Amino acid sequence: MSTLAALNFQNAASPLMEQLIFFHDHSMTILILIITIVSYNIISTYTNTNIDQHMLESQPLELFWTIVPSFILVFIGLPSIRLLYLLDEVYQPSITIKTIGHQWYWSYEYSDFLNLEFDSYMIPSNESTNSNFRLLDVDNRTVIPFNTQVRTLISAADVLHSWTVPALGVKADAVPGRLNQV
């Protein structure tokens, strides 16, 4: 469980979340490098009183700062596209869970089994104990198998909802009339 003082991601509970964290670190390293170089150039330009006339109108320099950002975008874009395809792919799931968002609760239905469905209500604040997470614990938790492919079909009955499990790297919007798959 994440706390308010946490500066990093939660521990990954799936290989896809590990890949998302690696991509985040990869892109942040590139961004910090770019910010450092640009800051150094701005400070050195501000403090330097000698201005070279050839540097102000340099076509090779303009070519350099046009081509280098395009390579940087490719260096960030290719892993991002690969990760998007990995996140969207469902490999022969062992179980399918249908999730329907309602105004104040979620309904879950295990489609592979007969008549196995339940509603999950949030535990009221006056009934919660110190061991519960405030506004996060529910009366009926969804149980999913470990180390297997699980397909979740997400929809809503009335309004927009957001269904997420941060440790798995899963987040989907529940939209009335639309069936989202994760």
TrEMBL record:
Membrane topology according to the record: Multi-pass membrane protein
Domain named Cytochrome oxidase subunit II transmembrane region profile: residues: 1-91
Subcellular compartments: Mitochondrion inner membrane
Membrane-traversing stretches: 21-43, 63-85
Molecular function (Gene Ontology), one example: copper ion binding
InterPro entries linked: CcO_II, CcO_II-like_C, Cupredoxin, Cyt_c_oxidase_su2_TM_dom, Cyt_c_oxidase_su2_TM_sf
SUPFAM superfamilies the UniProt entry points to: Cupredoxins (SSF49503), Cytochrome c oxidase subunit II-like, transmembrane region (SSF81464)
Keywords: Copper, Electron transport, Magnesium, Membrane, Metal-binding, Mitochondrion, Mitochondrion inner membrane, Respiratory chain, Translocase, Transmembrane, Transmembrane helix, Transport
Main location: mitochondrion
GO CC, any one term: mitochondrial inner membrane
Family the UniProt entry places it in: Belongs to the cytochrome c oxidase subunit 2 family.
UniProt protein name: Cytochrome c oxidase subunit 2
Source organism of this protein record: Orchesella cincta (Springtail)
